[in-house]
Write a structure and sequence with these properties.
Keywords: Signal. About 45% of the residues lie in helices and about 25% in strands. The protein is α+β, with helices and mostly antiparallel strands.
Length: about 160
């Protein structure tokens, strides 16, 4: 009986370990570190600029009256989502999700940037646009150009 329980425990442990490894691998594919390209300070500068100089616009039913800014030179729209969605009026520091929509001819590219509590900036590949390595490299370079433009814009004020 002890051997049976021991084998059962080992099999259960192995399954849990395998599932955990698979989940981490999935997270590594969908969450992309963007700290080298955009640090938390620049993220916060962009957020402040959009809140002060932009307007308010709703782009989906979950988030209403979001801070919004249009960058006509780049054909880009920037939104900020609050991390708390509990019905309270969000403060500036609650807007930790930057949603960027880039129009390229007939196609639209979506970028989701998250400022984590640890002050890391991550890109979330929500709709699996960046699964191909070459596409990922190209899109992250495009996103870097957009965020550089926004940082420069926020610095001028």
């Amino acid at each position: 009986m002890k051997i049976y329980l021991y084998k059962y425990f080992i099999a259960f442990f192995y399954c849990c370990y395998s599932i955990t490894g698979w989940a981490q691998q999935a997270d590594n594919k969908t969450l992309i570190d963007f700290n080298r390209q955009l640090n938390f300070y620049d993220f916060e500068q962009i957020r402040s600029y959009v809140i002060k100089h932009g307007d308010r616009k709703t782009y989906c039913p979950n988030y209403k009256d979001n801070p919004h800014y249009i960058v006509k030179d780049l054909a880009v729209e920037v939104y900020f989502n609050p991390t708390n969605n509990d019905g309270r009026q969000p403060t500036e520091n609650d807007y930790n999700v930057m949603y960027i929509i880039e129009e390229e001819g007939d196609s639209i590219i979506h970028y989701y940037l998250y400022l984590t509590p640890q002050r890391d900036v991550l890109v979330y590949d929500y709709d699996k646009q960046f699964t191909d390595i070459d596409t990922r490299a190209f899109r992250l370079t495009e996103l870097k150009n957009i965020t550089d433009y926004l940082v420069d814009l926020a610095a001028v004020k």
